[in-house]
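Two quick folds needed for the group meeting slides. Do the first one here.
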Amino acid sequence: MSSSQDTSRHMYRLASLYNGAALVQLEAMHWQTCRKPREEVPLFGPRVSESRKRTAYSVNQCVAAIDFNTAWLAFCIEGLDFDIEEVTFEYPKPTHEVELWLCGSGCNERQIVTKYPHTILKLIPNNKNEEAVVADATYAQYSFDDGIDTYNAYCATKVYRADGDSMREELFGRCFEDYAAFKGYAWEQSCSDAAVCTTNNVMFRELSAAGGVKAVLSMGAEEYQRTEDSILAALKQEMEELRLRLEWIYFGDADWFLMQLANVVMDADGAGHQACMQSYRRRNRPQSRASV
């Protein structure tokens, strides 16, 4: 296989792994899930299809998906023949119009998902003769069939406009820098920080155990799919365990609330997270402020 074919395969597979990881995170850590005892009050009714669940999880979560996965992606692309940018489109073009109803606390407001700007990851080969690839982890909110395309095809079919006035391209890490600089409410911040740390730990551990990033991305088709499935299953298990722990804190003793939240984040700050953050800082130094 030629070098260009290797690079293309690596980009598509990393895009697939990112999209899969983001869906696992959104399913486990959606804020409504952690604020309800899920076994007693499921977020969705029994007749809601999996595709509709993916749509609901994905709405307005494109930046969060990038935030949660930036550090381990920075670890992965060290030594590979492509880079990553963040691209925001002002006018996404959904296959079907998706309505969002904001309810609760006296609010009953209808919004159309297309009115939000949409941010994706663009994987750019070092060889400029090769095509860039889009990884769109929250594609389901626009009823797109999948979240991986060539960049040219994405611009031609999934946005209304892709010119200088309707899009912006930024360095990979811009979303994560904003995330790291913003300190919100203790609950939301702790949930997010713990999810970031947990994800980095799992991805670093599982990729390393499978032979390393390049070895995984270079596997034969069947072996790669088994490995990706195994990695995502490990992530799902640990994210579910994190969600359950957070649920116990949310409905637990108010006097120990902040201390328990802090303990969750500290417990998640493992060797894998530190390794991924080192990769991120090597890439983004000296501008990086990130310290999750």
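Then this one, please, same format:
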Amino acid sequence: MADDFAPSGDGLPADDNWGATDVPGGQGDMQMTTIDFPEIKLFGKWSLSDIEVNDPSLEDYIAVKDKSAKYLPHSAGRYQIKRFRKAHCPIVERLVCSMMMHGRNNGKKLMAVRIVKHAFEIIHILTGENPVQILVGAVINGGPREDSTRIGRAGTVRRQAVDVSPLRRVNQAIWLLCTGSREASFRNIKTIAECLADELINAAKGSSNSYAIKKKDELERVAKSNR
């Protein structure tokens, strides 16, 4: 026991001098190791790093890259706690949550994820493009840029044209896309995934076959007459 605390050559106890010896693989041989993480792909298939948001006003409100890149559109994030926090919710997850509308579908998020995944597979087969890019294009095209609001008190009410904020454009585009696909699949032999794929493709092209594009044009036409 006494030998353990015997002073070493430089006046330090033997136990306190453990780092002074040259040990192979010690501090001199230490090397920094870098870990290459694999690229995050939606459903393990669709790359999110090369998605482009072509509308500058919506860049901050369509969350798809960097921190918003997820393997699954099911982050269990509490985006409703604070105002405007939902702008940071991944855009694919916002689509999934919007597909859960109407009482009988409330809370069935896994079913909604399956529908969106199936729709993305169909989009890729039909267009050969990244379905996330198609979704971003559909959201950009589907949101109205001008709307009308009610001005005045009871009795003398008139409608006044107003600009639409970027966040509301995104919100309304997602709602219109999901509503259009839901109505198209009702009492139809086509599945909801097929109708969602058709709606997204048509909206991304700006085609009037899309429910969202038709509604957007109608809202903008009414707003124009109320300027």
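Slide caption for protein two: Strands lie at 41-42, 46-47, 146-151, 158-163.
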